[in-house]
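sorry for the late reply, my laptop died twice this morning and i had to redo everyting from scratch. anyway the thing you sent over, i finally got around to it. pasting the sequence first so we're on the same page, its 153 residues, then the predicted structure underneath. double check i copied it right bc i was rushing
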Amino acid sequence: MTLVTWRKKGSRPTNQTGALPEKIEDSREKYGPRAGAPLATPGTPRPHPRVLAGILEHPLRMKYRDPARTLGPFGLAEGASVLDLGCGTGVFTPEMARQAGAAGVVHAVDIQAALLDRARQRLRDAGLTARVHFQHSGAYHLPLSEESVDVAI
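ok and here's the structure:
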């Protein structure tokens, strides 16, 4: 294992012997294709960490992210079929169900089962479970037929 150190801002990294570290391409041959890649790259979907789910419903966040005000511009109509993609803990799902009305349906989809369980409980508490269908799925394999929703959020 080679230790890489930094001398000062703008200088080049060196190993213990003072030589420049190996090229990224050499590292990838040795350690695999992800060597040298950043942990989160643009365009790579990553779910919100489940342990940080409380941030989604924190009172300070809710002050500026009021569900009714946030969903208003989408113009959800009575009887609409709404896709809540990445519903998380269901912060917006009850309001979607209210706006879609008794004739509407909300398809709440999330890749994390633990967050879906919290969303289910939130809808039970609000008495709106009949209007929401929960799906444990990723965004690229939705369990819905084409053109089966009016609005995707």
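Residues 109 and 135 are 5 Å apart (CA to CA).
thats about all i looked at so far, will dig more tmrw
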